Amino acid sequence: MARSIIAIALAAALSGCFTIGDADEPITTITVPAPAPNDTPEAVIVLPGFGDSASRMQDRGFAEAVQRAWPQVDVVLTNTTFAYYNRGVLVPRLEQDVMAPALKRYKKLWLAGASMGGSGTLLYEHEHEGQMQGLLLFAPFLGDKDLLEEVRAAGGVTKWDPGPRPDALSADNWQRELWRVLKARAGNPVLAKRTWLICGKEDKLLAASRLASEALPASQYFEVEGGHKWEAWSKAAEATLPRIRASGTP
Q1: 6 domain-assigned
Q2: What is the pLDDT of residues 219-231, one digit of tens each?
Q3: Domain for residue 14, yes or no?
């Protein structure tokens, strides 16, 4: 799986339409200020999908979609690109470069991620459980086919046994740890209330999202029109954020 991802990344990079990034550099961000005032400073921090970047998310209008539904919130688009995942430093660098400054500036933080960024959102929650006000997962990548089949064969995520928690995330265990985070929601209403899962009806990761949704209340899983694209995720954010805010979580 890792070799195939790297091969795809290199091919796309050579075509000039792909972002890999440099894990030796700090994670940079683009902040889109809230268009409306807010007495309580809040932000949605967004992790891009595989091959994407902060500028590509900005070009796709994701921040504006969020702010049409929630005009009082800053949107922080991050360059948490593939290089940080590939090096295995995503979580500590995200904490150092993005979260630590944000926690000083904002009273409430949401962490959102699409596709690979959804994986990153769960990995960050794995190491910093409860730090965020809430998690927004847009069609997250949740692991290889064999792992999904293992979860399904166990009777779903609520019955699946992840085994002992490892001392540290690694290339060998990170996919299982995504599901450990999800499983924790099934037995903890407080954690479940903070987690929202959204996937397009034509998305290639729909089956995985449906499997994961069993760990959440039915009201916190949404299927929307569209596939595995920012266009669908932007529309989904605009459509579902009012319902999420109405739940009282933000």
Answers
A1: no
A2: 999 999 999 999 9
A3: no
